[in-house]
């Protein structure tokens, strides 16, 4: 059974059986769930140490340096990337490749394989339009890998460094990231009627949020997230979902998909995890505290 299905059942039970306590103290029965989530997260974290082929040192958001129309590059934990520029967008996959030298030594590169994108056509006319294209995973470019850096802050292309990208952190979150680790996010969090469960999911993280408007009605958000070492934040891809639900006393329920293109940012500082909903701007940010 997948983690999100287990959590769904736990939270459903909380809502139907312990609604009154939930409204007063945040989440009923959260202790056991949090202990299980933390234990599982710590074990997976140990097994997920950065390997030779890991792209974790470069995941996050980048901006092109020294360019008039600077491009934006976002790299996700699952190896996907998206590049946005003035007249279009491209996407593809990143992988680590090795170049062997005559003396037997090797140089390592982050190779970007383009899968496709969209580009603006007829932009100087009265009727501009976007056309989609696909690529056969052809190499767009390769950036030198800094083998000594757990978090790389510069990307230089090829041997000549013709392209240069630098890190970007929203709201300057990189300035106060000291002491924050990825595993600090893992666990069960509460904020009044709202709960959040953060767990490991492959090379990234799964964030599930439950907001109870009553004992049997509420909404559930699910985000597949990447941890950005540079800013010490979790950010989601573009397919976050919100489901509105109604449950009957017999446990049966009805779910309604509100959307499946949500974005979110989670920022942990001073023991508070801030949820920034980029789709709806829910409450302009919900502050969670981890349950003991």
Question: What is the strand content?
Answer: over 45%
Rough outline: globular
* Sheet having the most strands: 8 strands, antiparallel
Major sheet strand order:
6-5-4-3-2-1-8-7
Oligomer: single chain
User: End-to-end distance, in Å?
Assistant: 26 Å
H/I helix tally: 3
Total strands:
18
Mean pLDDT: 84
Roughly what percent helix? 10-25%
Overall radius of gyration: 21 Å
Q: Which H/E pattern describes the elements?
A: HHHEEEEEEEEEEEEEEEEEE
Q: Note poorly predicted spans.
A: 1-49
**Structural class computed from helices and strand pairing:** mainly beta
Count of structural domains: 2
Describe the protein in words:
By secondary structure, the protein is mainly beta. It folds into 2 domains: 3-50 and 178-290, no CATH class; 56-170, no CATH class. It is built from 3 helices and 18 strands. The protein has helices spanning 3-17, 19-25, 30-47; strands spanning 60-64, 72-75, 80-85, 88-100, 106-121, 129-144, 154-156, 164-167, 187-191, 194-201, 204-212, 217-228, 233-236, 240-247, 253-262, 264-269, 272-277, 286-290. β1 (60-64) and β2 (72-75) form a beta hairpin. The longest helix is centred in the N-terminal third of the chain and has 18 residues, at 30-47.
């Amino acid at each position: 059974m997948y983690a999100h299905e287990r959590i769904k059942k736990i939270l459903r039970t909380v809502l139907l059986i312990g609604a009154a306590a939930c409204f007063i103290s945040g989440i009923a029965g959260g202790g056991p769930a949090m202990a299980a989530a933390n234990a599982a997260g710590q074990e997976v974290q140990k097994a997920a140490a950065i390997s030779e082929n890991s792209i974790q040192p470069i995941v996050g958001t980048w901006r092109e340096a020294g360019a008039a129309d600077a491009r934006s590059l976002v790299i996700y934990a699952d190896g996907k990337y998206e590049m946005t520029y003035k007249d279009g967008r491209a996407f593809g996959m990143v992988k680590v490749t090795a170049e062997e030298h005559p003396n037997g030594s090797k140089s390592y590169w982050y190779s970007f394989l383009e899968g496709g994108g969209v580009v603006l056509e007829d932009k100087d006319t009265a009727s501009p339009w976007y056309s989609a294209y696909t690529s056969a995973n052809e190499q767009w470019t390769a950036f030198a890998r800094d083998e000594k850096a757990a978090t790389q802050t510069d990307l230089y292309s090829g041997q000549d460094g013709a392209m240069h990208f630098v890190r970007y952190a929203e709201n300057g979150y990189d300035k106060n990231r000291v002491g924050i680790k990825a595993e600090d996010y893992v666990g069960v969090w509460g904020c009044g009627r709202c709960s959040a469960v953060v767990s490991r999911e492959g090379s990234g993280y799964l964030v599930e949020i439950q907001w109870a408007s009553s004992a049997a009605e509420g909404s559930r958000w699910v985000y597949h997230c990447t941890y950005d070492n540079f800013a010490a934040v979790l950010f989601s891809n573009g397919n976050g979902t919100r489901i509105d639900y109604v449950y009957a006393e017999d446990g049966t329920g009805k779910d309604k998909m509100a959307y499946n293109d949500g974005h979110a940012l989670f920022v942990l500082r001073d023991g508070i995890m801030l949820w920034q909903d980029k789709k709806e701007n829910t409450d302009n940010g919900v502050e969670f505290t981890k349950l003991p």
